[in-house]
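User: Teach me something about this protein's shape.
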Amino acid sequence: MTEQKRKNTLATGFGFVAIVLWATTVPVARGVLEKLDVWLGAALIFLPSGILLILLTTLRARGFRWILHLSMRHLVFCGPLFIGYLCLFYLALGLAETRSEAIVVGLINYLWPTMILLFAIPLLGRRPRRLAFAVGSAISLGGIVLAMSVQAESLGALIGALGTSGLPMLLALVASVMWGLYSNLAKRYPQTISTGAVGLFLLVTGLSLLAASGKEWGGVDWTLKAIGELSYMIVFPASLAYCFWDIAMRDGNIALLGSASNLIPVLATLLAGVYLQVTLGWGLLGGAMGVVLGAFLCQLAFRQGTR
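Assistant: First, the predicted structure itself:
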């Protein structure tokens, strides 16, 4: 095996690790938010993770001069979308009334692969096969509806459920739209120091949520499990996963990792069911598979379309 091929294989492996770490976000983050309050819990995830990423970037760059090389266009156009995505998604996870609803919120968030492709049409000039893309989008949305209908015995009950728990699901939907926009604008206005920019975005997110929380630190129940879950979220999904993904995007097999990322909804749903002790019926599993299938068809529509 040549040195370049070994480097490519290792980088691709880092990408797969990042995918698995991100798939654990919904169950572990929900655990943190249940114990530490929605606003404060999210703030305590992003504030330290932002500091950690900034430190890692500074160590790699051997100083803080990397800040001078940041792309201002990326900061201006992509920063607010990244920060908004994190705020809305984690608020949606925390505001979900039950753990089953939190899993559905996670599935709605995982519409972002389809959103990325949708916004690539006007922002990047991509032209997919329209029928295949429409069918894929419809299947993804159908998967969400199926997952939402898990606890509803009728159409009226489903509409009623939307009335009582619609805010978290709406927040998750808007978050997926924001991530779709962010991903396309990040490609249009690429960042020269990606991990450093993400660290700054995480830091601003944490500070914003901390300012909005207004919760006394003394009122938090610091159990060993809460500390363990918080530490895991800070170090792995919110920090190292971004570093691993950055390496994978530079030197790994991007096509393979792009296809593999479509499996996150199913993997995240299975992990959430086990960790949150939620029985996964055919509605939730079928919904997750619908989101995956829809994303795959949308991706296929772009591959077969013209640029």
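Now, about its shape. Residues 3-304 form one domain. The chain has one domain: 3-304. If you'd like, I can walk through any region in more detail.
User: That's plenty for now, thanks!
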